Amino acid sequence: MSMFLDQVKVNVKAGNGGDGMVAFRREKYVPDGGPAGGDGGEGGDVIFIVDEGLRTLMDFRYNRHFKAEHGENGMSKGMHGRGAKDLFVKVPPGTIVKDAVTGTMYADLTEHDQKAVIAKGGRGGRGNIRFASPRNPAPEIAENGEPGEEKEIELELKVLADVGLIGFPSVGKSTLLSVVSAARPKIGAYHFTTLVPNLGMVKTEDGRSFVLADMPGLIEGASQGVGLGIEFLRHIERTRVLLHVIDMSGVEGRDPVEDYYTINQELEEYDLKLRERPQLVIANKMDMPDSQENLANFRKALEKDDQDVEIFEVSALTQTGLNTVMSRTAELLETTPEFPMYEEETEKEERVLYKFIPENKEYAITREPDGTWVISGDKVEKLYQMTNFQFDESVMRFARQLRGMGIDQALRDRGARNGDTVRIDNFEFDFVE
What we know:
Blueprint: E1 4-13, E2 46-50, H1 58-62, E3 65-67, E4 87-91, E5 95-99, E6 105-109, E7 115-119, E8 150-159, E9 163-166, H2 173-180, E10 181-183, E11 199-203, E12 209-214, H3 229-237, E13 241-247, H4 256-270, E14 279-284, H5 291-304, E15 310-313, H6 322-335, H7 343-348, E16 364-367, E17 373-376, H8 378-385, H9 392-404, H10 407-413, E18 421-424, E19 427-430
Parallel strand pairs: 1-3, 2-4, 9-12, 9-13, 13-14, 14-15, 17-18
Antiparallel strand pairs: 1-8, 2-7, 5-6, 5-8, 10-11, 11-12, 16-17, 18-19
């Protein structure tokens, strides 16, 4: 089944952990108060959650940055900082979340209320209470909070059209589509036809959104496989509301009443209960001279046949009457049952959740043209970011951690000499033998 993709890239940043505190008790009658600095709170996660009311990724076109809050810093008197709230981001069912850079899949979200943590908040830094030991009862050491994860991610939604535009060519369907829809997702090229179905995302004034597809070539013979072929008609089967566009001006020498019956005849022959779908008639080109008269005749003809039809007068050209019909469409979508959405795909696809585990190379050492040694790597950079350089003891601890990782020795092996400059992130220090 060919699918349309609605794609969008967003940036997510989880909260940093709060910094730990260096503090001491200062109380009367307690000569040397012990350490009393509390830990920082956890940073908030960025969590994606499925909301079955959403149909498109429209909201992400206007808002591409999602940041969770940072944890609170630790405080004196041993008080810990408060953890930050997680940030929940709603996505439509069927959303696939990938890393925009590596293409790694983080989550495939299909069920209502399903959740996935996309960026983890940093843990809070430990306060100096945690570093007290018999050898060092009053440590001046505290950690900074761990930075929250930040990622560029790509969201992909397999889009199934909710609403189909039907009608003869040249009745103004494509103009209508270009006027009401804000976004143009990439459109799958259909191999079996030269005609490409156009797809648009519509957002109504009251903020509801749906997918509107132009059904080209649903003309006599399509049901026999002429023109657009069965593939695309299968796509139409899934639409829940049909908008029947009719050119009321009659300028092409067509008869609106005849057109209405021909297209519906076509739907009936193709069957698939398409005739039972709610259908709104859009009387287009109402800005033309003969349109009012033609519309009056159209209403009469349909009443005579007991056709109970909602008719909306619009002009795609002057953009009048469109909001009304789009809001009415959104209303109908809410009351029309869904047709099984995933039944064909799910059988074929095994749904796997990949856990992304970066290869943790502890560090890499490179040398710049000016002779500076640069140490990089997730673990080292994290240690650096979590070190509070205001306190000598914290700095000494950092030096011990680097030694423990074998970085001193590695620098020596690579030929580092006393007094060489070493840089980690944006922190420079001298190499001391």
